[in-house]
Design brief:
The structure is a homotetramer of 198-residue chains.
Chain A: H1 7-12, H2 16-31, H3 38-45, H4 49-55, H5 59-83, H6 88-104, H7 106-114, H8 116-120, H9 123-139, H10 146-165, H11 173-193
Helix pairs in contact in A: 2-3, 2-5, 2-7, 5-6, 5-9, 6-10, 6-11, 7-10, 10-11
The structure holds a DNA duplex (21 and 21 nucleotides).
Protein name (chains A, B, C, D): TetR family transcriptional regulator
Domain HTH tetR-type (chains A, B, C, D): 14-74
DNA-binding region (chains A, B, C, D): 37-56
Amino acid sequence: MGGTMDRTKQQRRGNTRQRIQDVALELFAEQGYEKTSLREIAEHLDVTKAALYYHFKTKEEILVSVYDDLTQPILDLIEWGRQQPHTLETKQEIIRRYSEILSGATKLFRFMQENQATVRELRIGETFKERMQGLREIVVDPDADLVAQVRSVSALFTLHAGMFLLQDLDGDQESKRKAVLEVATDLITQAHGGGGDE
Amino acid sequence: MGGTMDRTKQQRRGNTRQRIQDVALELFAEQGYEKTSLREIAEHLDVTKAALYYHFKTKEEILVSVYDDLTQPILDLIEWGRQQPHTLETKQEIIRRYSEILSGATKLFRFMQENQATVRELRIGETFKERMQGLREIVVDPDADLVAQVRSVSALFTLHAGMFLLQDLDGDQESKRKAVLEVATDLITQAHGGGGDE
Amino acid sequence: MGGTMDRTKQQRRGNTRQRIQDVALELFAEQGYEKTSLREIAEHLDVTKAALYYHFKTKEEILVSVYDDLTQPILDLIEWGRQQPHTLETKQEIIRRYSEILSGATKLFRFMQENQATVRELRIGETFKERMQGLREIVVDPDADLVAQVRSVSALFTLHAGMFLLQDLDGDQESKRKAVLEVATDLITQAHGGGGDE
Amino acid sequence: MGGTMDRTKQQRRGNTRQRIQDVALELFAEQGYEKTSLREIAEHLDVTKAALYYHFKTKEEILVSVYDDLTQPILDLIEWGRQQPHTLETKQEIIRRYSEILSGATKLFRFMQENQATVRELRIGETFKERMQGLREIVVDPDADLVAQVRSVSALFTLHAGMFLLQDLDGDQESKRKAVLEVATDLITQAHGGGGDE
DNA sequence: TATGAATGAGCCTTCATTCAT
DNA sequence: TATGAATGAAGGCTCATTCAT
């Protein structure tokens, strides 16, 4: 009986859940959450829609599961950051590590970036906002002047955006990431120094 | 007769098209494009769905019309920018003017920002990309080093993002805009100066 | 003021009704009745849908008016036929005249032929059926054997079908009509003679 | 369990697809393709519209599937005819067999006959035209004179039309079919003999 | 560990028609 | 002799979800 199962089916055994997550993320990132139907995901995997429901309770839960798996490092980073003194060095290190995290799950973060309107209405929306808030609290000094605060936020955001907006620029992926990181680090450094004009 | 028509209906006459655009933008920005149905728009206006189709050929066309009306200033800005020498002053002026344009149509740009995945598949997607490209060409020096280029792009992007990401920060709208503008101007200035590490 | 009216508008004066009929028949014949919308007709004429309603009460009435105008000759033919003795000569003459009538309003008859399902549900459906019945009564001898009756009906039908089904055959329109007429005449003649096998 | 399901639902299991085809053909033939809505079909079957879409991708595909199932015999006939010498006997046999095929799927062919305008725009339109062309090529001698060719085409067409146009005539279905077949056979025979006047 | 069959809600769109001007 | 604006009904289709097997 097992012998009649061909290689493809055999490989599939036991990791369908993972495969669903992979395909889903791929499609969500490419086409957006709403434009990606469960039918489409199922077809890509050569299973039925009902199979998806064996592994996940809803469409949203597929996304949530991917999100949870891939953003754990951010939680860890925040955890770590909270226990450090809020020195410039800490902030720079946060920026550095965050840059690495982002490039470790490009697809997900691209998805989050491009589907904000959708994500806002989903469970992960709130969660993500909280995490960003968590990062901010470490990186932004609430007593600094407005310009300094903006600079800090801009540092975080430059990292985020960098991944997608630089696609048209020349240069290999890694050196672009380095450049982005440098700009972000500069921003955070300037913000720490003083911020405004003086 | 005519007198039997109540105020509400009368006011409506002749500006339904405009009202559709307003409500649509409002809802698109709030809930996203896909999540906003024509039924919903129609209900907000107290007309039937079919009335929308008298004024616009498709759902997409409603968006396009809003987009065209509201982004004309960007076209003008690009036009202007192209005729200037690419000096630092020009770039700073571009940044300044772009900041003003953005804050003149917050809803639309928030929509564009938060619905990138959707927008990418629509007609306006390509258009918008082209315009951004147009701005970049003026502001980014292709011969500068990578870091300088990133800084320039980051300037543009900081403007974009600034409008939404700063909502949780203290301060009134206008002073926040000023702060964002300052950071962006700094970025463009540094980029022009040299860019990198020296 | 009349002087500002250009040639096109001027020509239009007073014959809009006729132009509606022409365009409508053209489109009905080409695309079918249901697939042709009033919007389409109006656009072809460069007027609004509402203008059509000034001239005709309903979509169906446009068709009815065309039908009535163009099938009057059939009524006349039936009238004439009823007053003749049901001799072979009469039948042959009916066939001959009917052939002429058909080729005088090809579009309408093509329409009738190709939209039977639709036409059946319209007012003209019943009317047309009656007229065909009228022709039959003259041409088909109810006392003849079944085969003879079929031959007679086939004669009529061959005329009908001939117009459309022969489009792929070689030869000019007129000589094809002659050929069809000859076959139909033969059929009616054989039917009259005896019909069956003997 | 299982016992709680009433007879009706139980019967339904596993043959819904077939039932859709049956009901659809019935309604298409009766009211025409466009006038028959999916809602109507669904209601006749006591299922939802969405159920139809589980079994067929589009409305058109329902028709196509019926068409394909029911016109396979024509393909076989053409196949057979092509391998025979184009003698009179072959032609007569084609006519005979075609007559049988037609009376084996009356509803479909009535539908095709009465919805030509619609069918022309559908996928089956082209297909059907090709098949008719296939039959013609066997039955019509391209070197014969025009009248002979018309006679041949008329033979085919008389068969087609015979099924519907004779409904008002007396006589049972089968003897009418025989009569029609005889007339068609005569036509094909005369066409083969010479055709014209001599 | 999946599938086959179906549902209910909703979507975008089109249509014939109306009516005040 | 027309138009501008709108309506109500319906149509085809897609989607996330369910459930018995």
